[in-house]
Amino acid sequence: MLAQVEASASRGQLGAAGPRGLEIAGLRPPPAPGERVAVLSAGPPLLAEIVATRPEAQQALPLGPAGGARAGQAVRLLGPARLDVSEGWLGRVLDPLGAPLDGRGALPRGGRPRPLQADPPPPGLRARLGPRIGLGVRALDLFCAMREGQRLGLFAASGIGKSTLLAMLAGAPGFDVVVLGLVGERGRELREFLEDDLGPERLARSVVVCATSDAAAPLRREAALAAMTVAEHFRDAGQRVLLLLDSVTRFALACREIGLAAGEPPATRGFPPGVFAELPRLLERAGPGAEGCGGSITLLATVLVEGDDHDEPVADAVRGILDGHVVLDRAIAERGRYPAVDVLRSLSRTMPGCLDPAQRELVARARAVLALQQEMAELVRLGAYRAGTDAAVDTALRIAPRIEALLRQGRGEATPQDAAFAQLAEALADAGA
C-alpha cells in the first residue's frame, strides 16, 4: 500500500488520537489536506489522510482501525495518493489503495502513477460527445437515449432496483472496458454481484473498485476517486470506458464525515459546503477526453434519494451537474414492473441529437400516450370515465398497457436499440395513436 504514494523524508509525531481523528505535529513543511501520512509502530503502519492543517499541528483521519495509535508515535509524510494502473488490472477486484480483494495476488503495475485527485480535460480542448450508444435496456434506449461520453444519474430510494439495473447496464455492448466503483457497498453483496450479476465473461473486461460500508470515510470517498482514476487511464489510452458508480450519495456522505471532522460547519441539511465542491470535482472528470485522445468515459451513477425526496441536497446538486437523470419510482416497482423507470420524469439532455426524426416522433407519441393514461388513471379507477367519451383517452387506455409491457425487462434480457424502436412502433400501431 505504501507504494501507492510518494515517500517523503519529512517526519513528525502523533500528538493525540480521538474520535475526530489524529493530531500530528512536527511535519515540516506542513502537508496539504489530502496528503497521506503513515503512523509508524511495531506492526504495520497506520495510513491516514490529512484533512485540516494549522500552523502548529495537522489533523488526519485514519484509513483503517486506529486502535493501536498512541501519542508519541513517529509519523512519516507520504505525499499525495496515486495509483499505478495497468492493462493487467482487467478482470481484477481491488480496494481504493490498489490492494487486491480477489485473492489472486498483487496487481501488476503500469508505467506512470496517476494521482487520485486530478483535473478534467480543459473544456476548450475537450472532444465532443460521441455517437449514440445502446445500453440494452429498453426503457433507457427508448426514452433516455445516450451518447458516448455522456453522464447519466440513476435516482431512486432504497429497495427499488438500482443495483439490479446497474448489473444489467454492466453488460452494455459497445464499450472496451467497464469500471465499477462500489462505494460503501454491503460486504456480503460483492461476491453476489461479481458471480451472479457480472459473471466471468463481463468481469474479464472490467475493473472493480470496492470499499464496503464499514470502511473509514476517507476510503469510501477514495473508492469513487480510484474508480475514476482507473477509468481515466483506459480513456487516455483511447478506449471507450463505461464507468458505473454506486453510489454518488455514499461518496457525498463520506465527504460529509470528513468535512465535519475537519471542522467545517454543517450547512444544507447537515452537509458542509465542501461536499458540494467535491461533487463537481469528481463528476466533471468523466466524459470525452481531450481532442485527439479518441477515448471516452460514459458515466452511469446511482443517487440514493432519502425518503423518496428527489429534491434533497445531494440529488439536486448531482442532477444539475450530470447530462440527464433516470428516475426509478417505488409505485412502479410495487406494481411489479422492473426496471421501475418512470419514463415521464426521466430525461436525457442529449436525446434530441441521438435520434432520427422518425424515432423522435415515436418517442413523443409514446410519451403523450403514457401522460394521458396517467392523467386519467384515477378517474378510471373510480369508474368516473366511460369508454367512448373521448377518442384520445380511449386510445391511450388501450395502448399504454402495450408500452408498459415493452418496458418490462428481465435481468438477463438485452434488446438492441433498433429492435426496441421496432417494438415501440408495433405497440403504437393503432389507427387512433
TrEMBL record:
It is found in: Cytoplasm. Gene3D superfamilies: 3.40.50.12240. One of its GO terms (biological process) is protein secretion by the type III secretion system. Residues 1-29, 102-128 are annotated as: Disordered. Its main location: cytoplasm. Residues 102-117 have a biased composition (Low complexity). SMART domains: AAA. GO terms for cellular component: cytoplasm; type III protein secretion system complex. Keywords: ATP-binding, Cytoplasm, Nucleotide-binding, Protein transport, Translocase, Transport. One of its GO terms (molecular function) is protein-exporting ATPase activity. It catalyses: ATP + H2O + cellular proteinSide 1 = ADP + phosphate + cellular proteinSide 2. Residues 148-333 form the AAA+ ATPase domain. This is Flagellum-specific ATP synthase FliI. It comes from Falsiroseomonas bella.
